[in-house]
Please model this.
Amino acid sequence: MQQLVCLLLLVFPVFAQQTPPPEQAAQDATIKVDVDLINVLFSVHNKQNGLVGSLTKDDFTLYEDGKQQAIRYFTRETDLPLTIGLLVDVSLSQQNLIEIERRAAYQFFSKVLRPKDLAFLISFGADADLLQDYTSSPKLLQRGLEGLKVNSQVGGLHPGPVPTAITPKGTILYDTVYLAATEQLKGQVGRKAIVVITDGVDQGSRYPIQQAIKAAQLADAIVYGIYYVDPSAYGYGMYGGGYGDGPLKRMAEETGGRVLKVDRKHTLDDIFKEIQDEMRSQYALAYASSSGTRDGSFRRIEIKPKEKDLHVQARRGYYASAHTD
Model:
């Protein structure tokens, strides 16, 4: 909800840049902008999980807390500026996968980033390290990716951006998502995504999973989870290790993303390509809530497609925070 005026100008330039006729301009001494619009980015998939990009406003019905809302603005967004945070698990269980992640991530950045886009890179294990701050340069990101290395600790006090001295640490997944959302993405406008490569384990985070989800929701950031397991680290069969993708799936689905699994049929490169295509094939809508209160409570959003075979992938809701300006 922060900086809604800026976001509105980015998401809906066709509405923001219309020039009124001279007689209307003479009558209007001021320009009124509705700062109470709620903006939602979403994707639509068919039964075969293919992206559907030819729909209009009339193909959807919008609800907030079960009450139908009027869609004020609607467009398909393929070129809105994008800010991506890549979070790479470098705990001991991932040590055999780091080189694959490094190469695939560089290819992803090289293909997805355009001059007006930004990306940053964080590695996490026993603590979180910002390896590359905001940049649109694949070369700088490649340099950051070269810094990926195993980060593990049995326990005790270990300094880092997210202190976790009480509980023995192994993989501070939730803390890192919280950090990326609050410190890196909250002040940005446009489309924002957190891409997390991990085997789903969290050990020693200071913040619980719900706080990580809330931070992402407050930042209007979508979480994409890439579930990548080294079977030899757990003593299971091929891609049968890890602690399961349940927590990762919860973070993704609550924020409008999803979890993709690396397996025999889907390489890390394939999954990066899927995420890239999805982020370039999103719809954007904006509406003014029929509720007149802004009490900080969580409001549930549901976008229903009129065609039954379609599935909408969108964030589950937003926090109706009071204005700070």
Summary: Residues 1-34, 154-167, 236-241 have pLDDT under 50 and may be disordered. Residues 98-112 form the longest helix (15 residues). The CA atoms of residues 50 and 91 lie 33 Å apart.
